[in-house]
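Predict the 3D structure for this chain.
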Amino acid sequence: MTDHISKEEKQNKIEQMQNLIVLLNQASKAYYQESREIMPNHEYDRLYDMLESLEKETGVTLSNSPTMRVGYEVLSNLPKEKHPQKMLSLDKTKDAEQLKNWLGDQEGVMSWKLDGLTIVLTYEGGSLVKAVTRGNGDIGEVITANARVFSNIPVSIPFKERLVLRGEAIITYPDFEKINETIADEGAKYKNPRNLCSGSVRQLNSAVTAQRHVRFYAFSLVSADGLEFAKRTQQFDWLASQGFAVVQHKTVTASDIEVTVKWFEGEIQDNINPSDGLVLSYNDIAYGQSLGTTAKFPRDSIAFKWRDEIKETTLKEIEWSASRTGLINPVAVFEPVELEGTTVSRASVHNISVMRELKLGIGDTIKVYKANMIIPQVAENLTGSNNVEIPAECPVCGSHTQIHNENGVQTLMCPNPECLAKQIKSFTHFVSRDAMNIEGLSEMTIEKLIARGMIKELADLFHVEKYKEEIIEMEGFGEKSFDNLKKSIEKARNTTAERFLYSLGIPNIGTANARIIARHCRNSWQRVQNLSKEELMTIEGIGEVMADAFVGFFADEAKARIVEDLLKEVHIDERFEAAGTALAGITFVITGSLNHYENRDALKAEIEKQGGKVAGSVSAKTGYLINNDLLSQSGKNKKAKELGIKIIDEETIMKWLRTGVTE
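Done. Predicted structure below.
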């Protein structure tokens, strides 16, 4: 079915599919997980049909396509399998001149040496039937179920004969940082994307793998029954036509190797895929194979490792950075130097043992570099004065510190369970979308602000402008980011009783309960914070455990002081419009585009004012489905019809809201 499509047309269609998948998955996530709509229902259906048509036309189905319904598989262990041929490592060099000599008068292909986990994939009949890790080169682990949920791997392809290929499974730097932000224990955080990828690929539960957004980049075609290729570049083009993401590559000769190496070097800062160098291979496949192998290396390819740029500088201070786990980590602060195109002035020293091993002292001459041209590190101390004093007090809460020794590694700890550095979650909850909605404050940013003493309680978030100069120097920030943050903070000063109540993070008080409690108190904050247990338990949905937690929160002196300080910074809109009862006891679901309301939340608010409820999905408890397209074949319309639930349009619900009469 795909024979009539040219290579260029097919690649364009696959790229179009990839764009559609991103858009459709974003829309699904917004609608089903975040209760918001970024496109009308009929537009989603139109794009879905377009994607389905392209999949049929190209014979390619990508694993993260919404047309796929992947089931997750849980295993008790990973089976082992011997590779048909030993998978050898590559010989290495850090000298571009050696690359020229190695290539000689041949044409080469230069690509990223991705820093992840090598995987061998096997397809039969157009379907992925096996995925095996490199392992020790002789024996790998079978991870087929996990490979099927990699975020960009095709699970079916148009080529129906047996295909074996190799590639690298990686996790991008942005995904790595997001995942690490969710891990409270500093010691449990992943050190680099490769470690995270290795653990993610080798999970026993493929649902976990799917959550980690593992990506696969093909770098070698081992065999494709019935097909022969003369050039590696032809293999790459063919693999791309089958739906595979292939490693970024360029053809080179000895005359332009150095220029090409420089080009890749210039791309490092913007490359979200972890890489620890480059790979140079002969483009002529037969020529490369004719050279054979050594006992350790194949002779058709060679790896190029970046030669670290090392600069001397002066150590100005050791900054002690407290974390949410109680660890207090030493950070070297030195005279700024230019490394790999950026200015660097800080590097983590990890723990007391590393600091002592380097014999760091204030004023010492040290050598610094960027590991893999990304992460600043102290390489060497030329002075070795070893005069840094270990702080006796936590820099955040002032508690006496303790030195822990585990397996010969010394770390500094804050033993205070109430240390502010350990309260990161309360800050991230406070600024979240359904709470105070302060954009630009990620969990990682908040941790940095606390560690550097810029915020000591929630109210301090409203005064970060005092530290503008320090913040714009932080990684990921600049003048524009800071200005956007400041605007978001000022906007958050005007809030509602339900948002403010939810933002405090009282156990079991989610958005729905916060709304119910606020309405019970007619949006009066004074009434909210003085509710008794008895009165709370008269409110529908509030039980004894919840009431005890609520009352206990406001009775706690420290918590009460936090609330008091926050009330000096915010203005709570206490306007109240009494709810009607016209829609009491009726549950609605809203789908599709609206003609008279700004968005679904606006209609939802009107329904709730009349005592109705709005759910996100159709169930037996649904009273009515609201959809302006009564004949839509959307999933919600089909479900409503199956359950005998009436579908009404926007005009009908507006009439009910206006007259107070249903049906």
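The chain has 24 helices and 26 strands.
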